[in-house]
């Protein structure tokens, strides 16, 4: 319910908002679940997929191997429409508006709810590729309406 200023680094963001680190720890602590192909849509690096609860074919969106990459999940809380993309930083400035327009095409503008963005993946690498991508993604989402 309030605007958060984007710090200069992902580390500064986590230090300024300790619940982020706790939520990440909880996510990492969850056990891996094996899923079959029924209802699964796998998203590879540089791909994007959008679905909604009304879709009878897709019930799981997934991706993996996000080392320096990030998996971005954008979800509309009102209707459950969800976009998942596997971003590698190739063209973040173009990707984020595409993610936004994709989820909005599944969202009824009259429907209550908000957009929630979740970033998964990356690590503290020597060249700081992950940290740069985190900042690029958050900066681009911050520029969106």
Description:
- 33% of the residues lie in helices and 20% in strands.
- It is α+β, with helices and mostly antiparallel strands and 145 residues long.
- The strands form two sheets. A four-stranded antiparallel β-sheet has the order 2-5-4-6. The protein has a two-stranded parallel sheet with strand order 1-3.
- Helix 3 packs across helix 4.
- The relative contact order is 0.18.
What Rg do the Cα atoms give? Answer: 15 Å
Oligomer state equals: single chain
Anisotropy-based shape: globular
Number of helices: 4
- Low-confidence segments, given as residue ranges, are none
Question: What is the CATH class designation?
Answer: Alpha Beta
Total beta-strand segments: 6
Give the spatial strand order of the biggest sheet: 2-5-4-6
Architecture (CATH level 2) name:
2-Layer Sandwich
Q: What order do the helices and strands follow?
A: HHEEEEEHEH
Sheet of most strands: 4 strands, antiparallel
Terminal residue distance: 15 Å
Proportion in helices = 25-40%
**Strand residues, percent:** 15-25%
GO molecular function: protein-N-terminal asparagine amidohydrolase activity
Protein name: Protein N-terminal asparagine amidohydrolase
Pfam families: N_Asn_amidohyd
Keywords: Hydrolase
């Amino acid at each position: 319910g309030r605007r958060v200023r984007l710090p200069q680094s992902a580390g500064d963001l986590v230090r300024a908002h300790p619940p982020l680190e706790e939520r990440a720890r909880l996510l990492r602590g969850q056990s891996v679940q094996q899923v079959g192909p029924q209802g699964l849509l796998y998203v590879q690096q540089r791909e994007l997929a959008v679905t909604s609860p009304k879709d009878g074919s897709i019930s799981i969106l997934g991706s993996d191997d996000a080392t320096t990459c990030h998996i971005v999940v954008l979800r509309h809380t009102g209707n459950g429409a969800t976009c998942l993309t596997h971003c590698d930083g190739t063209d973040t400035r173009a990707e984020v508006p595409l993610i936004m327009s994709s989820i909005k095409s599944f969202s009824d503008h009259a429907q209550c709810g908000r957009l929630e963005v979740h970033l998964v993946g990356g690590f503290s690498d020597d060249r700081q590729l992950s940290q740069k991508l985190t900042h690029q993604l958050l900066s681009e989402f911050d520029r969106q309406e």
